[in-house]
Amino acid sequence: MDNVSVVRIFTLAGINETMDYRIAIFSLSLIYYCVILFLNFSLVFIIVLDENLHEPMYVLLCSICINAVYGTTGFYPKFLFDLFSFSQEISYEGCLLQAFVMHSYACCDLSILAVMAYDRYLAICHPLHYHSSMTRRKLAQLITFSWLTPFCILSLGILLATQLQLCSTKIKKLFCVNWTIVQLACSHSNTFSNVIISYAAIIIYVSHGIFIMWTYMCLVKTCTRSKDNRVRFMQTCVPHLVSLVMFLVVVLFDLMYMRFGSTDLPQSLQNFIALEFLVLPPLMNPLIYGFKLTKIRNKIMSLVYVDVLL
């Protein structure tokens, strides 16, 4: 490893494999990012402007769309800039900020999905108590929890990363994440606290996943008793379930590869694995919810119909 005493600049080595196709990748990435922004902001505006959609489920959907914009904005603008830069570098502070955004985006997504599962559990399993349980104040508290908890945990992780003495500046990814920074630490650096925080975060969010599984076991059990509940389950829970499965698969795959995967894979394949959680969920979530949830679909169709008439 390089003998580096004070690191101020990192090199994002993962981007080197894409430079031969940078014009095509730049064009596709720019279009893709614009589509993500358009779809997510459109869904947010539809929910905000229509008072009939000011219900917990749609407010939570609004939150997950805002989180998608937050996460993708932490990656795409920098990536697009790097494609036409002579050197693919990022400052030490910028790397820490990007690592915080990437991790908090993923953790916030899972937290919001857990709150959405709780909302559906109350609505279907305890419909008589739903409105008294899921009040505006309770909803605000749950949304605050889903954002602040990841921010607090990951702030501690980033703070501990700043205490490490680094002996390399080469990051073999397209973007910064906390674990890649820890891997650059000198052999004599104490990374025990960083590892503890990482595993604590994993345990917390695995518990989120277990909670979601429990709510769906209750939902399925309740829905087998009533045709009306089965219809509600298909209309409101299936989009959430598809979104959840897609998110868990891409994030767990990337996490397992980052911790235990082989470094012998081609860099282009490593880049694809790393980017899945920034490519699939931000685009698919607004499409899945937009087409499946009846109220949102009807609102979109009415707006399109008005535009056609005009």
Features:
single chain; three-stranded mixed beta sheet; mainly alpha
Structure commentary:
This protein is mostly helical and 310 residues long. 75% of the residues lie in helices and 3% in strands. A three-stranded mixed sheet has the order 2-1-3. Helix 2 runs antiparallel to helix 10, helix 9 runs antiparallel to helix 10 and helix 10 crosses helix 11. 32% of the residues are buried.
> Unreliable runs, pLDDT <50, ≥5 residues?
none
Number of helices: 11
Give me the Rg, rounded. 21 Å
Helix content: over 70%
Q: How is this fold's topology laid out?
A:
Blueprint: E1 9-12, H1 22-49, H2 56-73, H3 76-83, E2 89-91, H4 92-125, H5 130-133, H6 136-161, E3 170-171, H7 178-183, H8 192-223, H9 227-260, H10 267-292, H11 294-309
Parallel strand pairs: 1-3
Antiparallel strand pairs: 1-2
Helix pairs in contact: 1-2, 1-10, 2-4, 2-10, 4-6, 4-8, 4-9, 6-8, 8-9, 9-10, 10-11
Concise account of the structure shown:
By secondary structure, the protein is mainly alpha-helical. It is built from 11 helices and 3 strands; from the N terminus they run βαααβαααβααααα.
